[in-house]
Design brief:
The chain is of the alpha/beta class. The protein has seven helices and four strands. Strand 3, helix 6 and strand 4 form a beta-alpha-beta unit. The relative contact order is 0.19. The mean pLDDT is about 95. It binds iron/sulfur cluster. Iron/sulfur cluster binds next to helix 1 and helix 3.
Length: about 160
Amino acid sequence: MHRKKQIVYISHCILNQNAVIREWERAQGAFNNIIRVLLEDNISIIQLPCPEFTFLGENRPPKTKEEYDIPTYRSLCSQLTIQVVNQIKEYIINDYEILGLIGIQGSPSCEASGEKGIFMEELMKLIKEENIDLNIFDIPEEYIEEQSQEVIDAFKSYIRKIL
Ligand code: SF4
């Protein structure tokens, strides 16, 4: 067997909707149809931690980015990203391709493009310091499992582009 050495980092809740705010889940478990696109191309998936769950637990209220933007939360996000970036560096040194980073549009923590969430801001800061370039895709706010074929098509195009 030979390994393909292609990896995508994804926001935690793409694989585990149990981590989102109660009643805000958009799938019963994972975003299966998004994950399936990656699996079909034998792309390995690394699940980022859920910073909000880590900070406030499962039964947390919805909060804005401004409400989350306090030193203790930034510091937690910053700590969580150190391990992630060390791992990315280790893969790159050993000739793995980090194909991309998949975030969650509209999340005060995990939006990776546009108005970045706090966790992604901290992650990007470290990634930039290491001169690492990542292709970014955010799962749109309107995505609901089994009801969003347009998003799946857009995601497939993104994957074709970065492969
Ligand atoms: S968007 Fe980020 S903080 Fe929100 S549930 Fe998903 S992983 Fe957790």
